[in-house]
UniProtKB/TrEMBL annotation:
EC number, as in UniProt: 6.5.1.1
GO molecular function, a single term: ATP binding
Bilayer-crossing regions: none
Claim: GTP-binding is one of the keywords in the record: no
Domain ATP-dependent DNA ligase family profile, chain residue ranges per copy: 139-230
Signal sequence interval, chain numbering: none
Region feature (Disordered): 1-37
CDD domains, A to Z: Adenylation_DNA_ligase_LigD_LigC, OBF_DNA_ligase_LigD
Protein name, as recorded: DNA ligase (ATP)
Family assignment from sequence similarity: Belongs to the ATP-dependent DNA ligase family.
Alphabetic keyword roster: Ligase, Plasmid
C-alpha cells in the first residue's frame, strides 16, 4: 500500500507572505467602496445665494424647503437626528425617527430639511416653530407633524459618499426613498428650466429653488457647488434690543437686529411688522428677562432711537426684500423665533 504524498505546509518561511490584491480605483458610477467608518457628524454643504441661475445643463434643481436643516444618522443600534449646529434633536422629531427605523438595517447619513406643511401642503416655518416651542417655556416640545425632505445621501452601507459626485449620490438616494410618503420623503428634482421653475415656485408662495452641480462631491460650507435663488430673502438674526411703543405698553414698537461679521455683532436694522399682538406681549416678557446690564450696548450703534438693549440670545427668522447700501434690511418682516441651539444659522455678513 503506497503512502499518500505528504502535504505541503500552508505557509513556509521561505515563501512570500500572503497579501491581499491591490486596491482598484473607485468607479464613481458604480461605488463599490471599501468600508469607511461612519463619521459622528458632517458639517453640512450650504448653498450660495444668487440672483440668477447659473447657465448650463450640469445643474439639478429642486424646491427650497423652509424649515430646519437636519442630518439623520441611521445605524442598527442607534438613530440620531442632528441640527446644522450639531445638536441632538432626535426626541423632538418622533415621526422622522420612526421613519428612519423603517429604513434600516443599513447604515446611512441622510441630509435634508424638516418642515411642517400647512393646510395647502406648503412648508410653513411659523407652524414648525410653534410645534417646537422655540425659546419659550415649551422649549423641547416634539414636532410630531414634521416631515423630513431628504435631498442628499452622505454615507451609505459602510461607504463614505462625500467624494462621490452628486449625480451618483442622488441616484442612490432616489433608489432608497422613491415611493416613501411617511416621515421621511424624497425632495424631488424637477426637470424644468430654473427660471420657469422659480416663477411657479414664487407663485405658489414657496421660498425659492436650490441648484446642485451634478459633477461635484459633497463639500462642507458655501463652496458654490450648491446655489439658491429666493423669491423673498429670509435669514436668521440675533435680537439685541427693542424700541418701546406708546400704543402697546406691554409690547414694543420694533425689534433691533444684528448679524455676525467675523466674531463681532453688527447692527442690521429693525423689524416692526409681522407680529400678532399676543406674540409681541410674549416676546416682550422674554426680552425683559434678558436686559443688558452693562453701560455700553452689545455692539457699536450710531442711531438716535431709544433702545432697550438685551443679551443677544434670541434668534429671529426675518423675511426681507433686499439690503440697503449701508447694509441694513429693506422691508423686513418677522416670521418667528428659531431655537437658541440653532445659532449656526445666524446670518454672517462676511
Amino acid at each position: 500500500m503506497t503512502k499518500p504524498p505528504r502535504s505541503k505546509p500552508l505557509l513556509r518561511d521561505t515563501e512570500a507572505p500572503i497579501r491581499s490584491r491591490p486596491r482598484k480605483k473607485r468607479n464613481p458610477a458604480q461605488p463599490q467602496l471599501l468600508f469607511d467608518p461612519m463619521p459622528d457628524r458632517v458639517e453640512p454643504a450650504l448653498a450660495q445665494l444668487k440672483s440668477h441661475a447659473p447657465k448650463g445643463d450640469k445643474w439639478s434643481w429642486e424646491v427650497k424647503w423652509d424649515g430646519y436643516r437636519l442630518a439623520v444618522h441611521i445605524e442598527p443600534q442607534d438613530i440620531r437626528i442632528l441640527t446644522r449646529g450639531g445638536h441632538d434633536w432626535t426626541r423632538r422629531f418622533p415621526a422622522i425617527l420612526e421613519a428612519a427605523r423603517a429604513l434600516g438595517p443599513a447604515t446611512m447619513i441622510i441630509d435634508g430639511e424638516a418642515v411642517v406643511l400647512d393646510a395647502e401642503g406648503r412648508p410653513d416655518f411659523g407652524l414648525l416653530q410653534q410645534s417646537l416651542g422655540a425659546s419659550g417655556k415649551q422649549a423641547g416640545n416634539r414636532a410630531s407633524g414634521a416631515i423630513f425632505y431628504a435631498f442628499d445621501l452622505i454615507y451609505f452601507d459602510g461607504h463614505d459618499l462625500r467624494g462621490v459626485e452628486y449625480r451618483s449620490r442622488r441616484h442612490l438616494l432616489d433608489d432608497l426613498l422613491t415611493g416613501k410618503d411617511g416621515g421621511i420623503r424624497l425632495s424631488e428634482t424637477l426637470d424644468v428650466e430654473p427660471a420657469v421653475l422659480l416663477e411657479h415656485v414664487c407663485r405658489l408662495g414657496l421660498e425659492g429653488i436650490v441648484g446642485k452641480h451634478l459633477d461635484r462631491p459633497y463639500r462642507s460650507g458655501r463652496t458654490g457647488d450648491w446655489v439658491k435663488i429666493k423669491c423673498v430673502q429670509s435669514e436668521a438674526f440675533l435680537i439685541i434690543g427693542y424700541e418701546k411703543s406708546s400704543a402697546s405698553p406691554a409690547g414694543f414698537g420694533s425689534l433691533v437686529l444684528a448679524a455676525y461679521r467675523g466674531a463681532d455683532l453688527v447692527h442690521v436694522g429693525s423689524v416692526g411688522t409681522g407680529f400678532k399682538e399676543t406674540e409681541t406681549v410674549r416676546l416682550r416678557k422674554m426680552l425683559d428677562k434678558l436686559r443688558w446690564k452693562r453701560k455700553q450696548p452689545p455692539l457699536p450703534y450710531s442711531g438716535s432711537a431709544d433702545i432697550v438693549w438685551v443679551e443677544p440670545t434670541l434668534i429671529a427668522e426675518i423675511e426681507f426684500r433686499a439690503w440697503t447700501t449701508d447694509r441694513k434690511l429693506r422691508h423686513p418682516s418677522y416670521k418667528g423665533l428659531r431655537d437658541r441651539q440653532d445659532n449656526a444659522d445666524v446670518f454672517r455678513l462676511d
